[in-house]
Specification:
single chain; alpha+beta; tt1808, chain A; six-stranded mixed β-sheet; 13 strands; 24% helix
């Protein structure tokens, strides 16, 4: 139960029965259901592929954890994100604080699901662009596809669809994701 004296961040941290987000200044529970096996498998497999390639002294992965904030109007919890350890720490060395990232991240991933597909595409992905995240991926475990949006130097985004093969992350040279293995 949210009280009037709780801050938004306290609510998201302490109300553990739900995954809270803030959309356009309004606190709301993240629309979730029990995720499908293909949704969960894709997240697990991309996490595994990326973890084997990232330097653990420079990057960490977040899966359904941490919040990406734009001003105080949005806090979203992506399915997966790569966090550069050069970002200012929000909880390392401190207790009882919500992990929040204000600066652009190298990669933010949303995996399509029947319950959140429209919400992710229509509401969350444009906010990630407004934050300036370097790469924003939407994986679709039923169509076996990836829509990758990559930030250009002028701040706009280029979009590319991939239906298989190895896809290189532009924000992290040398890091790739094998879509054929991801969707197998």
């Amino acid at each position: 139960m949210v009280t009037q004296t709780q801050t938004v961040e306290e609510t998201m941290l302490w109300e553990r029965d739900r995954h809270w987000e803030v959309h356009r200044g309004v606190l709301r529970a993240k629309p979730v259901e029990r995720m499908t096996e293909p949704h969960n498998r894709v997240i697990w497999r991309i996490n595994r592929q990326l973890a084997l390639q990232l330097d653990p002294d420079r990057f960490e992965l977040r899966i359904n954890d941490g919040r990406l904030r734009r001003a105080d109007v949005t806090y979203y919890e992506p399915d997966l994100a790569i966090v550069a350890l050069t970002e200012p720490p929000t909880i390392r060395g401190r207790s009882k604080r919500l992990e929040v990232f204000d600066g652009p991240l190298p990669l933010v991933v949303e995996v399509w699901s029947p319950s959140t597909g429209g919400y992710d595409v229509d509401e969350k992905l444009p906010e990630y662009e407004r934050r300036g995240d370097a790469e924003i991926w939407r994986l679709h475990p039923f169509e076996w596809s990836l829509i990758a949006r990559r930030r250009r130097p002028d701040g706009s985004y280029a979009e590319a669809r991939h239906d298989g093969g190895r896809v290189a992350l532009h924000a992290l040279p040398g890091v790739t994701v094998d879509l054929d293995a991801l969707f197998a």
